[in-house]
Structure formats: structure tokens, C-alpha cells
């Protein structure tokens, strides 16, 4: 049976974000931004060997012979490697209206978060990738027993083999999650996720791809080991290029969930959907995907669920220094709140960011 989860409004304010870019180890030949936001270094200027030589008339010898001005030496960029390292310090504050997600007696919580971020980027074809490691210390004002250092490792890549391509993401998070009906009691949870897409696209109207994704969830607390599971999802996706900046796609994803407890919560999940992604202007992009989702348990004594599935995101550059992101999602998710199987989630979020200077920015994030 699905577990009823009472929502909580989450407000996150990033007090500051200070970044430092290390040595640019190679001139980037293209400014095309595929995977991550990157700050590229200034290109070295190169003098031409054929530049005209200006005669220095004051350099004549007594014999009337002229000394030719020396030919200028070209200024060449130093040889370098295609990687760039960026370090960032970040601090934020998160406020929860119902931290324990209980239907009654809701208690708020204020959490302070601080930590560095290390980002390694490669932006040279055919391989472009980004790796980011972010240790974050969280300080709780009400439930101080939850004060912990969490870890997050994320990466994405794109490999272009024209007309074939391969791209994907990899994530690893070691963090505290609620695991019981009294959510103030937290457990360390290791979550590994991956998503890969192998496709064929000749730049015409139609492109096809096969997608494979999955996740592995493990509780560090031995008493919660029965909640460990691994998920594997696979399915095709077909793109139709309406215009250079507008794509419509159809996809179907079949996912299996295998639990540590030997089959009680093992299930199969099917999503069939249609989506559109559009770059409306240079400052506005959106992607919306909707369809149906159904879940059935291998144990016939447990009832599954089916219903409407939706995911959308809108990004708008409000000004040169201000950006806005809105997102919404409705789906069936595996529960991390205990041995409950799944829950039906409806999540809205918004983020507004402001860049104070080249190296300093702030943001406010709200989720409910």
C-alpha cells in the first residue's frame, strides 16, 4: 500500500557562493556549452609574422647604412591540457515548515549548510565531461543530533561519434534521510544513480536512442538493511526535430526493483510518455514530459498503483545577473521513509539566483 506522506515547504537561501578557477590547461576551441556552466580563460593574442616592419630612421650608421628593425617574434599560447579545475565555497540556510512530515503537530526546522565544491571539467570534443565533489556540513537548530557531514559526487559526460552519440550522468550521495514515522530520527543513506543514452542522429528530422538508467540504495544502519534495493530501467526514445531548437520525443521505460529482503517489495514499473523541449529565446528554455505510470508487485498480496505522470522545468534569464528556475513533478517513487514500498509524490520548486560579481552569487530555493 502506498505510504501517505505529508508535504513540507522547504526554503533554501544561499548566503554566498565564491568561486576560483584554476589554470586553464588548454585553449577551448568552441564556446558551445553542452554539459555544465564553465568560465573560459582569455585567449592569448598571436602576432602575425607578416606584420609590416617600421623603419627606425634614427638607427642609421655614419656610413649611411640603415639598421633594419628586428622582425617581431610571434606570441604563441603555451601548450596545455584540456582540463579545468574550479573550486567554490558555498553557504546556505534551509527552513522546513514540517520537518518530520507528520500529518499533525508539524514542527519547523532551520538548517545551516556550508562546504566547498570542487569541479573538474573537460570541454574538448569528442569527450566532454564534468565531475563535481561537494562535502556539506549541516547544522540543525532543533534536532542537533542530526548534525552531520554529507557527501555528494556527481558527474556527466558526452561522447560524440557522429552520427552516433553517448551521454549520461553518474551520482553518489551519502546523506541523512528520514526512515521512520518520527522523521527527526535520521539514518545515513547511500544512493548511487546512473543514466546513459546511446543514440543515432544525422541532424535530420528523426533521431533514435536507447536509454538505460538505474539506482542503488543502501542504508548504513544494519536495522534498515531490508530497505536496500537496486533498480534497473531500460527503454527506447524517438526524437522528432520540428525546428532546430524544438524537439518532440516519445519514450517508454521499463524498470525493475529488487529488494534486499528477498522479494516482498520487488516490483515492476512502466512509464510511457511524450515530451517537448524548446529553446524559446536565448534567455528562456523549457522541457515538459507527461504520460502514464504503473507499478505492480511480484507479490500478488500487495496492491500496486497507476496514474498520471508529469515532469516539467522552465528556465528564464530575467536580467544579466538574475535567473529563475521553476519545476514540477508528479510520479510514483520508492519510499525512503521505511519499509513502505512506494508513495505518490507531487513536488513543486522554484529557484531565483543573483550574481553579485564575477565570483560571488546568491540564490533562494523554495520547494513544497
Q: What would your notes on this structure say?
A:
The chain is mainly beta and 368 residues long. It is built from no helices and 16 strands. The protein has strands spanning 10-21, 83-96, 109-124, 127-140, 148-161, 164-178, 186-200, 206-219, 229-243, 246-259, 267-281, 284-297, 305-317, 322-334, 342-355, 360-367. The chain has a 16-stranded antiparallel β-barrel. Strand 13 (305-317) and strand 14 form a beta hairpin. It is globular and about 75 Å long.
Secondary-structure blueprint of this entry?
Blueprint: E1 10-21, E2 83-96, E3 109-124, E4 127-140, E5 148-161, E6 164-178, E7 186-200, E8 206-219, E9 229-243, E10 246-259, E11 267-281, E12 284-297, E13 305-317, E14 322-334, E15 342-355, E16 360-367
Antiparallel strand pairs: 1-2, 1-16, 2-3, 3-4, 4-5, 5-6, 6-7, 7-8, 8-9, 9-10, 10-11, 11-12, 12-13, 13-14, 14-15, 15-16
Task: Write out key terms for the chains shown.
mainly beta, 368 residues, globular, single chain, disordered N terminus
User: Which oligomerization state do the chains in this entry correspond to?
Assistant: single chain
Terminal CA distance: 23 Å
Query: What is the spatial order of strands in the main beta sheet?
Result: 1-2-3-4-5-6-7-8-9-10-11-12-13-14-15-16
Cα shape: globular
Estimate percent helicity.
Answer: under 10%
Order of helices and strands: EEEEEEEEEEEEEEEE
pLDDT averaged over residues: 78
Into which percentage range does the β-strand content fall?
A: over 45%
Number of helices: 0
Low-confidence segments, ≥5 residues, pLDDT <50?
Answer: 1-5, 21-67
Number of strands: 16
Radius of gyration: 27 Å
Sheet with the most strands, sense and barrel status: 16 strands, antiparallel, barrel
Q: Helix- and strand-based class?
A: mainly beta
Amino acid at each position: 500500500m502506498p505510504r501517505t506522506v505529508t508535504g513540507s515547504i522547504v526554503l533554501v537561501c544561499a548566503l554566498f557562493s565564491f568561486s576560483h578557477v584554476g589554470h586553464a590547461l588548454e585553449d577551448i576551441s568552441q564556446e558551445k556549452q553542452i554539459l555544465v556552466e564553465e568560465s573560459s580563460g582569455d585567449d592569448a593574442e598571436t602576432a602575425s609574422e607578416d606584420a609590416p616592419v617600421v623603419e627606425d630612421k634614427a638607427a642609421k650608421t655614419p656610413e649611411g647604412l640603415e639598421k633594419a628593425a628586428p622582425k617581431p617574434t610571434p606570441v604563441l599560447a603555451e601548450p596545455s591540457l584540456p582540463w579545468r579545475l574550479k573550486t567554490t565555497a558555498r553557504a546556505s540556510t534551509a527552513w522546513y515548515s514540517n520537518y518530520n512530515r507528520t500529518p499533525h503537530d508539524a514542527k519547523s526546522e532551520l538548517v545551516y549548510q556550508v562546504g566547498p565544491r570542487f569541479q573538474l571539467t573537460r570541454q574538448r570534443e569528442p569527450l566532454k565531461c564534468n565531475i563535481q565533489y561537494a562535502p556539506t556540513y549541516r547544522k540543525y537548530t532543533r534536532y542537533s543530533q542530526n548534525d552531520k557531514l554529507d557527501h555528494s559526487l556527481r558527474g556527466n559526460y558526452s561522447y560524440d561519434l557522429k552520427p552516433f552519440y553517448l551521454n549520461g550522468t553518474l551520482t553518489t550521495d551519502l546523506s541523512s534521510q528520514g526512515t521512520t514515522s518520527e522523521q527527526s530520527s535520521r539514518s545515513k543513506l547511500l544512493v548511487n544513480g546512473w543514466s546513459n543514452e546511446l543514440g543515432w542522429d544525422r541532424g535530420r528530422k528523426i533521431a533514435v536512442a536507447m536509454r538505460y538508467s538505474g539506482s542503488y540504495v543502501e542504508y548504513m544502519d544494519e536495522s534498515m538493511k531490508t530497505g536496500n534495493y537496486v533498480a534497473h530501467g531500460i527503454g527506447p526514445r524517438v526524437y522528432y526535430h520540428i525546428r532546430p531548437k524544438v524537439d518532440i520525443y516519445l519514450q517508454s521505460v521499463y524498470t525493475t526493483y529488487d529488494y534486499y529482503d528477498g522479494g516482498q517489495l520487488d516490483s515492476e514499473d512502466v512509464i510511457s510518455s511524450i515530451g517537448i523541449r524548446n529553446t524559446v529565446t536565448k534567455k528562456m528554455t523549457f522541457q515538459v514530459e507527461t504520460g502514464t505510470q504503473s507499478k505492480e508487485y511480484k507479490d500478488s498480496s500487495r496492491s500496486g498503483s497507476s496514474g498520471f505522470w508529469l515532469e516539467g522545468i522552465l528556465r528564464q534569464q530575467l536580467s544579466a545577473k538574475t535567473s529563475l528556475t521553476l519545476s514540477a513533478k508528479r510520479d510514483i517513487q520508492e519510499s525512503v521513509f521505511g519499509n513502505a514500498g512506494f508513495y505518490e509524490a507531487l513536488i513543486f520548486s522554484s529557484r531565483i539566483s543573483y550574481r553579485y560579481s564575477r565570483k560571488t552569487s546568491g540564490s533562494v530555493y523554495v520547494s513544497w
